[in-house]
Amino acid sequence: MEDTGLRIGDVAERTGLSIRTLRHYGEVGIVSPSGYTPGGFRLYSEADIERIMLIRRMKPLEFTLDEMREFLDAADHPDDPAARETIDRFRTEARARLEKLRRRVGYAEEFLRLAESL
Predict the structure, then answer these.
(1) Residue 18 in contact with residue 12, Cβ under 8 Å?
(2) In total, how many domains does the chain have?
(3) What is the model's pLDDT at position 3?
(4) Within 10 A of 69 (CB to CB), how many other CB atoms are there?
(5) Could you read off the pLDDT of 47-63 as tens digits, one per residue?
(6) Is residue 1 part of a domain?
(7) CATH for 99
(8) Is residue 20 one of the residues assigned to a domain?
(9) Quick one: 54 exposed, middle or buried, by C-beta within 10 A (0-12, 13-18, 19+)?
(10) How many CB atoms lie within 10 A of CB 64?
(11) Please, what is the average pLDDT of the chain?
(12) 11 near 52, Cβ under 8 Å?
């Protein structure tokens, strides 16, 4: 990719993630820019942004960076039987984590109602 794509600031604004977070993702290897400008600025493609958004959606479910990497690797090869097993395992785990998160949000809402009644 030569001087096409979005720069990191634009990607940060579009995804709601910080520039620091995007750089960290590149450092740990879960998403890297598809290219660089001649001046060395990172350039992200639409596919890169889709991957970043997938990561952002995993964050509230408290998946680790290693778990995210494992899932993303599997998602890159959805027709592979081993990858399908990984995807299915993550789907099951995501459902369980989402239910736990919903319970926690319910507790937080209860607390807020109590605090507001004082």
Answers:
(1) yes
(2) 1
(3) 59
(4) 16
(5) 999 999 999 999 999 99
(6) no
(7) 1.10.1660.10
(8) yes
(9) middle
(10) 9
(11) 95
(12) yes
